[in-house]
């Protein structure tokens, strides 16, 4: 039961983080102009690129080291090494963005240098927040993570309205409110972490940093490609279309990415469990864990996505101004690829847990290359729809490679057969829902039929019993 609680709280934490981002950008969509929302999206994109390009991904390495270490003194050293490295990368981001602000401003098609400075400090706070987040996950403090994420979300919204009331709504006020939420999150997270670890610097600290960096160097290229795969179409759209189109596509991607929450939550809980099981050489338990979580993941993601698509017209009309309604068609294109990708996130961390991050490197870079090629070809010709098609092609490529590489690189026995039945039926259901967009009753009937079919194929009750056993 405790393990199930970890999945639930990790999912709840992910949901709060993604939901807060969506809610906040919806608030901005109703208080700022469409062009301003587009600029805000580019500031966030510039911040995200700073984190992806200028920081090695030490967080997975830290989790792997902390879960594989029993010595208390060494645990403190690894924690300290990770914190020092994170702070160093954060300072590096701010320094480079200040030094090359003109070049970066041109790259993101922004007309005000102040937006680059805002992006750099946002990246600074997000990098430290990410480290705190992963340390707490390694300690399986998912309930506490949910608690501080919820508080940070509320503070973000309240601080925005307070600052907007004082200075009037603007992009700067939106970013400042995110600063406040991130700083509060870090303070509350560090308070909890120091109950388990101490800040310890001694002669071995450089060796610990080197150990972390060696593993992180390969993971860096995997994470970089993963990030660019999700955002490259937006960058190309920014170069060929207007800020208004950037705002529409950004909303579509943000909403679609909500369906990564379940997969990411399961992956985050599975990863420390797998590293521990590998250290104990419990191969059969790992195979069972991956098979059960894969089926459980797909069952919930497919059901949630088909229900959402059935009422997407009504939801978008309710929460956003009419100029954003065109994103509904983009969602019908993007979501099938996102859903398949998210489903496999439950087992994606297997290669990192096996200390084989280079395998993941091949998958994500192949996917990214496809995305870049199709984006450059399709976006100039078909606009937002071209970006959506290039994104779905890259996301479909990823899980196909995972299936193939698991079979040739590992000895694990994972049952994928249920996908051969359930995913084609899902695509047919999505097509039918799209054809009856104006008929809410018919769309809901199609969704109910799919849910019944998915339940028969995956048998969620049997999955749950197997998981408990």
TrEMBL record:
Database matches in InterPro entries: Poly_Biosynth_Transport, Polysacc_synth
Keyword Cell membrane set for record: yes
Main location class: membrane
Any single Pfam family the record assigns to this protein: Polysacc_synt
Compartment(s) of residence: Cell membrane
A Gene Ontology cellular-component term: plasma membrane
Membrane topology note: Multi-pass membrane protein
TM stretches of this protein: 12-32, 38-58, 78-100, 115-132, 144-167, 173-194, 206-228, 248-269, 298-320, 326-347, 359-378, 384-406, 413-434, 440-461
UniProtKB keywords: Cell membrane, Membrane, Transmembrane, Transmembrane helix
Name of this protein: Oligosaccharide flippase family protein
Lineage per the UniProt record: Bacteria, Pseudomonadati, Campylobacterota, Epsilonproteobacteria, Campylobacterales
């Amino acid at each position: 039961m405790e393990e199930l609680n970890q999945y639930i709280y990790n999912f709840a934490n992910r949901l709060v983080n993604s939901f807060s981002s969506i809610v906040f950008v919806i608030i901005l969509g109703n208080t700022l102009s469409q062009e301003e929302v587009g600029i805000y999206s580019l500031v966030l994109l510039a911040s995200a690129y700073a984190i992806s390009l200028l920081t090695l991904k030490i967080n997975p390495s830290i989790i792997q080291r902390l879960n594989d270490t029993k010595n208390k003194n060494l645990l403190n050293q690894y924690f300290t090494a990770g914190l020092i490295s994170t702070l160093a990368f954060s300072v590096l981001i701010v320094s480079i963005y200040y030094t090359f602000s003109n070049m970066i401003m041109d790259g993101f098609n922004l007309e005000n240098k102040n937006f680059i400075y805002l992006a750099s400090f946002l990246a600074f706070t997000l990098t430290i927040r990410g480290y705190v987040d992963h340390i707490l996950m390694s300690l399986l403090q998912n309930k506490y993570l949910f608690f501080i994420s919820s508080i940070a979300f509320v503070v973000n919204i309240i601080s925005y309205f307070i600052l907007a009331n004082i200075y009037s709504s603007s992009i700067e006020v939106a970013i400042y409110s995110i600063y406040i939420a991130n700083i509060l999150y870090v303070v509350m997270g560090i308070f909890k972490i120091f109950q388990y670890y101490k800040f310890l610097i001694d002669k071995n600290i450089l060796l610990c940093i080197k150990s972390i960096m060696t593993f992180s160097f390969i993971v860096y290229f995997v994470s970089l490609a993963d990030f660019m795969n999700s955002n490259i179409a937006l960058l190309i759209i920014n170069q060929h279309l207007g800020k208004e189109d950037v705002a529409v596509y950004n909303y579509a991607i943000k909403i679609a990415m909500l369906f990564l929450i379940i997969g990411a939550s399961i992956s985050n809980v599975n990863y420390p469990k797998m590293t521990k099981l590998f250290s104990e050489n419990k191969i059969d338990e790992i195979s069972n864990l991956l098979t059960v979580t894969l089926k459980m993941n797909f069952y919930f993601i497919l059901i949630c996505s088909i229900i959402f698509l059935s009422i997407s017209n009504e939801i978008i009309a309710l929460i956003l101004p009419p100029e954003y309604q065109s994103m509904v068609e983009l969602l019908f294109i993007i979501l099938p690829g996102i859903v398949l990708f998210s489903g496999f996130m439950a087992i994606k961390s297997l290669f990192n847990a096996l200390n084989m991050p280079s395998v993941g490197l091949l998958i994500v870079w192949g996917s990214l290359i496809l995305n870049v090629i199709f984006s450059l070809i399709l976006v100039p010709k078909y606009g937002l729809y071209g970006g959506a098609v290039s994104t779905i092609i890259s996301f479909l490529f990823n899980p196909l490679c995972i299936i193939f590489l698991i079979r040739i690189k590992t000895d694990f026995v994972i049952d994928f057969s249920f996908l051969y039945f359930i995913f084609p039926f899902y695509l047919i259901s999505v097509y039918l829902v799209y054809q009856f967009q104006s008929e809410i009753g018919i769309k809901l009937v199609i969704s109910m039929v799919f849910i019944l079919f998915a339940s028969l194929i995956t048998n969620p009750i049997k999955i749950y019993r197997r998981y408990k056993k």
